Amino acid sequence: MAETLDTRQGKVPKAKFLANAVNDLLNQLISECRRSGEYHNYIDICVIGYGGDEDDTAKYAWEGDLSEKSFVTIQELKASPVDRNGSRGVWITARAQRLTPMKQALELAHDTLLQTALQTREESIPITNRG
Question: Distance between CA 52 and CA 57 in Å, rounded?
Answer without folding.
Answer: 9
